[in-house]
Amino acid sequence: MSENIERRRFLKSAGMCSLMLTPLAGCSVKEDADSAHKPHYCMVFDQNKCVGCGDCKTACNQANNLPEGISRVILEQQSGRVEGQSCPHCSKMVCDCERKFVRVSCQQCKNAPCVTVCPTGAAHRDPKTGIVTMDASKCAGCKYCIGACPYNARLINDNTDVADNCDFCLHSKLSHGELPACVQSCKYDALIFGDANDPQSYVSRLLAVKDSVRIKPQFGTEPSLRYIPIVKQGV
Amino acid sequence: MDTSMEFTLGLSQGVAWPWPIAVYLFFAGISGGALTIALALRFYLGQVENTAFLKAATLLSFVTISLGMLCLVLDLTNPLFFWRILVFYNLNSVMSIGVIALSVYIPLVAVVALLALEKELMAIPQLKFLAPIITKLKGFRRPIEVLVLVLALSVCAYTGFLISALIRFPLINTSVLPALFIASGLSAGGASAKMIAVWLFKEPLHSGEMKLLHGAEWPIMFAEAMFIFMIATALLTGNAGDQYAFAAFHEGVWAIVFWIGVVGIGFAGPLLLNFATSKHFSHSSRAFYMSGMCAVVGMMCLRLFILLAGQNYAI
């Protein structure tokens, strides 16, 4: 602040500031009471640990009563090959490509396009947990959310004819105090789930020490799924 | 760390919005475009009588928007769920705002059509019961028409805003789209209303009103071509994702639809029919209908191209 400010002007501004801040003080008290603890549920996929067994898909299918062969999570194999077939990465029959898998599922965006475009509010954010989920009784099946999702991570559930997404098993497991089905089923600890707003949670401590990336961050969707990529190139 | 991760698989196969949605965009554009031109002309010329063109435009507008709604409902995963879209609203959603606009627009188009076609409807004995309703509505005719003009333009633009919200597709996710859809709706809507006015309501081919409409055709078509050119250059000179989507203009079956349907039939067709033929032919009713059909086919191809080619090039 300038040194030669006049006393009168200083007192005037001080008065103005206090007038402006008084009502704000009231707001902040109320806000504190509301947000005692707002969780931010995050999932971390560790590519170094995933072997591509697909147990997560089976567990997802069973936990959420999905049609046969359908799950809200799939795995993309980015290199490595099936015996007897050429490598999808280098197209050679014999190669040293590593088997890399990537989890493909709803990225649980903080700024979710599906929630914005949904005309009925069926795709919504659960107020208590902040998780993007579906109210199947409101969905009209217009598929706007499917086109709007930058990750193509939403699907139509043929049992219910409405849109579906991975909501961390909010209704089937999380509400019973259990971990999401895929996390429970992973034998290799490739999936870590927890509240990133709780500094003591394992997921918070893991994200604090590990480099993780998000998919397509340029869309500004702020996904809650984090990926720990394989960076090792050779011996 | 300079590592990033990508996946290319998705949980949904194929396009989210198939061709019936393109047909819906087409019908909504024709409906809004025809009515905008007819009402703008009515206000501009200060007409009070029911002209053949107004009759044609209101009838066409009501029929096309109803067919459009049918396409929309049939494309839902379960058409019986359509009531949910009318009961639950989300004002952040372009579609929800469109539903509100359409649920005002469609009944008002019916009213405008009822008033414009009064003589024709009263000639049918079974419809005599409408007479007191028409008399009552006549008092509100001007305000209803003004509101319908605004809504007709909004419906045209809405179809553009609706799909331009899909951020994954560079060809679709452009701010020019609503303007392009207004321009193409005006040109095809005007052309089809003209054809119906001449064919069904016996408007003379060379009346003063028709001459005015023929003259308006070219600037609208020029605007349409310019908007398409703007989208193409923006993609060509854009970032990697945009440049990838530019391939829609020169690769695959939708590029053929674009060059033959949109450019060949939609733009070159009417131009050649009007300026490259003898004066005798270009003033004939055959040339009139052919050139009108060209505009309509061109618009349908444009909607198909934007929606389906657009969804094929995701980033």
Question: In words, what does this structure look like?
Answer:
- The complex is a heterodimer of chains A (235) and B (315).
- With 235 residues, chain A is α+β, with helices and mostly antiparallel strands.
- Chain A is built from 6 helices and 9 strands, in the order αβαββαββαββαβαβ.
- Helices cover 26% and strands 17% of the residues of chain A.
- Chain A has a 3-stranded mixed beta sheet with strand order 8-1-9, with helices on one face. In chain A, strands 2-3 form a two-stranded antiparallel ribbon.
- The model of chain B has no long low-confidence stretch (mean pLDDT 94).
- The A-B interface holds A 47, 72, 74, 76, 78, 102, 104-105, 113, 115-122, 138-144, 146-156, 161-162, 211, 213, 215-216, 219, 227, 229, 231 and B 1, 3-12, 15-17, 75-78, 81-82, 84-85, 87-90, 92-96, 99, 163, 165-169, 311, 314.
Mean pLDDT across the residues of chain B is 94
How many helices of chain B? The count is 13
Distance between the termini of chain B: 23 Å
Tell me the helix content of chain A.
Answer: 25-40%
- Please state the oligomeric state of the protein chains shown: heterodimer
